[in-house]
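Session log. Operator J.P. requested a structure for one protein chain; no other inputs attached. Running the standard single-chain path with C-alpha coordinate output.
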Amino acid sequence: MSNAEPVPTEARRLLKEGQDHYFRDPPDYAAAERDFRGATEMAPSWGEPFHWLAFALEKLGFLDKACEAARSAIRLVPGDSRPLISLGAIQLSLGRYADAVQSLQEGLALKPAYAEADAGLMLAEAFEGLGEIDRAADLWRQIIKMDPSYPSDDLPMEKAKKKLAKHGLSEL
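Structure written below.
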Protein backbone atom coordinates (compact mmCIF):
# COMPACT_ATOMS: atom_id res chain seq x y z
CA MET A 1 0.00 0.00 0.00
CA SER A 2 1.17 3.52 -0.53
CA ASN A 3 2.69 5.41 2.37
CA ALA A 4 -0.43 7.59 2.51
CA GLU A 5 -2.65 4.52 2.76
CA PRO A 6 -2.22 2.64 6.05
CA VAL A 7 -2.50 -1.14 6.08
CA PRO A 8 -5.56 -2.24 8.06
CA THR A 9 -4.69 -3.84 11.40
CA GLU A 10 -6.76 -6.90 10.53
CA ALA A 11 -4.76 -7.43 7.32
CA ARG A 12 -1.52 -7.24 9.31
CA ARG A 13 -2.93 -9.76 11.79
CA LEU A 14 -3.86 -12.15 8.98
CA LEU A 15 -0.40 -11.86 7.43
CA LYS A 16 1.22 -12.66 10.79
CA GLU A 17 -1.12 -15.61 11.40
CA GLY A 18 -0.44 -16.90 7.90
CA GLN A 19 3.30 -16.74 8.55
CA ASP A 20 2.79 -18.57 11.83
CA HIS A 21 0.93 -21.35 9.98
CA TYR A 22 3.56 -21.41 7.23
CA PHE A 23 6.49 -21.82 9.67
CA ARG A 24 4.73 -24.08 12.15
CA ASP A 25 6.14 -27.57 12.66
CA PRO A 26 4.52 -29.23 10.84
CA PRO A 27 3.47 -26.41 8.51
CA ASP A 28 -0.20 -25.83 7.72
CA TYR A 29 0.02 -24.42 4.21
CA ALA A 30 -3.75 -24.51 3.66
CA ALA A 31 -4.33 -22.33 6.74
CA ALA A 32 -1.48 -20.05 5.67
CA GLU A 33 -3.02 -19.71 2.20
CA ARG A 34 -6.39 -18.85 3.72
CA ASP A 35 -4.88 -16.15 5.94
CA PHE A 36 -2.68 -14.67 3.20
CA ARG A 37 -5.65 -14.60 0.81
CA GLY A 38 -7.72 -12.87 3.49
CA ALA A 39 -5.02 -10.23 3.89
CA THR A 40 -4.91 -9.66 0.10
CA GLU A 41 -8.68 -9.22 0.01
CA MET A 42 -8.61 -6.80 2.94
CA ALA A 43 -5.64 -4.81 1.59
CA PRO A 44 -5.53 -5.38 -2.19
CA SER A 45 -2.85 -2.76 -2.79
CA TRP A 46 -0.44 -4.19 -0.19
CA GLY A 47 2.13 -6.42 -1.87
CA GLU A 48 3.50 -8.34 1.12
CA PRO A 49 0.58 -10.78 1.54
CA PHE A 50 0.62 -11.52 -2.21
CA HIS A 51 4.28 -12.46 -1.89
CA TRP A 52 3.47 -14.87 0.95
CA LEU A 53 0.38 -16.17 -0.83
CA ALA A 54 2.64 -17.23 -3.71
CA PHE A 55 4.76 -19.26 -1.28
CA ALA A 56 1.75 -21.02 0.23
CA LEU A 57 0.19 -21.77 -3.16
CA GLU A 58 3.51 -23.17 -4.38
CA LYS A 59 3.72 -25.49 -1.36
CA LEU A 60 0.13 -26.62 -2.02
CA GLY A 61 1.04 -27.44 -5.63
CA PHE A 62 -0.99 -24.66 -7.26
CA LEU A 63 1.93 -23.41 -9.31
CA ASP A 64 0.04 -21.36 -11.90
CA LYS A 65 -1.91 -19.59 -9.14
CA ALA A 66 1.37 -19.08 -7.27
CA CYS A 67 2.75 -17.35 -10.38
CA GLU A 68 -0.29 -15.05 -10.46
CA ALA A 69 0.18 -14.12 -6.79
CA ALA A 70 3.90 -13.46 -7.34
CA ARG A 71 3.09 -11.24 -10.33
CA SER A 72 0.68 -9.26 -8.15
CA ALA A 73 3.42 -8.80 -5.56
CA ILE A 74 5.86 -7.69 -8.27
CA ARG A 75 3.38 -5.08 -9.48
CA LEU A 76 2.69 -3.82 -5.96
CA VAL A 77 6.26 -3.75 -4.64
CA PRO A 78 8.45 -2.70 -7.56
CA GLY A 79 12.09 -2.73 -6.65
CA ASP A 80 11.74 -5.69 -4.25
CA SER A 81 13.78 -8.65 -5.46
CA ARG A 82 11.89 -11.25 -3.40
CA PRO A 83 8.75 -11.63 -5.56
CA LEU A 84 10.81 -11.75 -8.76
CA ILE A 85 13.04 -14.48 -7.36
CA SER A 86 9.98 -16.35 -6.05
CA LEU A 87 8.34 -16.15 -9.47
CA GLY A 88 11.54 -17.44 -11.06
CA ALA A 89 11.65 -20.37 -8.64
CA ILE A 90 8.05 -21.29 -9.44
CA GLN A 91 8.66 -20.99 -13.18
CA LEU A 92 11.69 -23.23 -12.76
CA SER A 93 9.47 -25.82 -11.03
CA LEU A 94 7.12 -25.63 -14.00
CA GLY A 95 9.99 -26.20 -16.45
CA ARG A 96 9.50 -22.71 -17.91
CA TYR A 97 13.23 -22.13 -18.11
CA ALA A 98 13.28 -19.05 -20.35
CA ASP A 99 10.71 -17.31 -18.14
CA ALA A 100 12.65 -18.35 -15.03
CA VAL A 101 15.85 -16.88 -16.49
CA GLN A 102 14.12 -13.55 -17.09
CA SER A 103 12.53 -13.37 -13.63
CA LEU A 104 15.66 -14.49 -11.78
CA GLN A 105 17.92 -12.12 -13.71
CA GLU A 106 15.57 -9.22 -12.93
CA GLY A 107 15.49 -10.22 -9.26
CA LEU A 108 19.27 -10.57 -9.02
CA ALA A 109 19.75 -7.20 -10.76
CA LEU A 110 17.96 -5.64 -7.76
CA LYS A 111 20.79 -6.89 -5.50
CA PRO A 112 18.83 -9.00 -3.01
CA ALA A 113 19.72 -8.46 0.63
CA TYR A 114 19.94 -12.21 1.17
CA ALA A 115 19.67 -15.49 -0.75
CA GLU A 116 21.78 -14.24 -3.64
CA ALA A 117 23.61 -17.58 -3.88
CA ASP A 118 20.29 -19.46 -3.80
CA ALA A 119 18.86 -17.28 -6.58
CA GLY A 120 22.06 -17.67 -8.59
CA LEU A 121 21.83 -21.44 -8.22
CA MET A 122 18.26 -21.35 -9.52
CA LEU A 123 19.35 -19.19 -12.44
CA ALA A 124 22.11 -21.67 -13.25
CA GLU A 125 19.54 -24.48 -13.12
CA ALA A 126 17.35 -22.57 -15.58
CA PHE A 127 20.32 -22.15 -17.94
CA GLU A 128 21.05 -25.85 -17.54
CA GLY A 129 17.42 -26.60 -18.42
CA LEU A 130 17.83 -24.55 -21.59
CA GLY A 131 20.99 -26.51 -22.45
CA GLU A 132 23.20 -23.46 -21.87
CA ILE A 133 25.79 -25.30 -19.78
CA ASP A 134 28.54 -22.69 -20.29
CA ARG A 135 26.34 -19.96 -18.81
CA ALA A 136 25.30 -22.27 -15.97
CA ALA A 137 28.93 -23.17 -15.29
CA ASP A 138 29.92 -19.49 -15.11
CA LEU A 139 27.29 -19.02 -12.40
CA TRP A 140 28.29 -22.17 -10.52
CA ARG A 141 31.88 -20.89 -10.43
CA GLN A 142 30.71 -17.51 -9.11
CA ILE A 143 28.58 -19.18 -6.44
CA ILE A 144 31.51 -21.29 -5.21
CA LYS A 145 33.39 -18.05 -4.45
CA MET A 146 30.53 -16.46 -2.48
CA ASP A 147 30.49 -16.24 1.27
CA PRO A 148 27.86 -18.49 2.88
CA SER A 149 24.76 -16.58 3.97
CA TYR A 150 21.14 -16.88 5.00
CA PRO A 151 19.05 -18.88 4.31
CA SER A 152 21.10 -21.80 3.00
CA ASP A 153 24.55 -21.12 4.44
CA ASP A 154 27.07 -23.05 2.28
CA LEU A 155 24.55 -25.39 0.63
CA PRO A 156 24.50 -23.43 -2.70
CA MET A 157 28.29 -23.62 -2.86
CA GLU A 158 28.23 -27.38 -2.34
CA LYS A 159 25.49 -27.82 -4.94
CA ALA A 160 27.42 -25.68 -7.43
CA LYS A 161 30.51 -27.86 -6.95
CA LYS A 162 28.45 -31.00 -7.53
CA LYS A 163 26.90 -29.54 -10.71
CA LEU A 164 30.32 -28.70 -12.12
CA ALA A 165 31.54 -32.21 -11.31
CA LYS A 166 28.41 -33.73 -12.87
CA HIS A 167 29.23 -31.97 -16.13
CA GLY A 168 32.94 -32.81 -15.90
CA LEU A 169 33.90 -29.15 -15.50
CA SER A 170 36.60 -27.58 -13.35
CA GLU A 171 35.89 -25.17 -10.52
CA LEU A 172 38.32 -22.65 -12.03
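Operator note: The mean pLDDT is 95.
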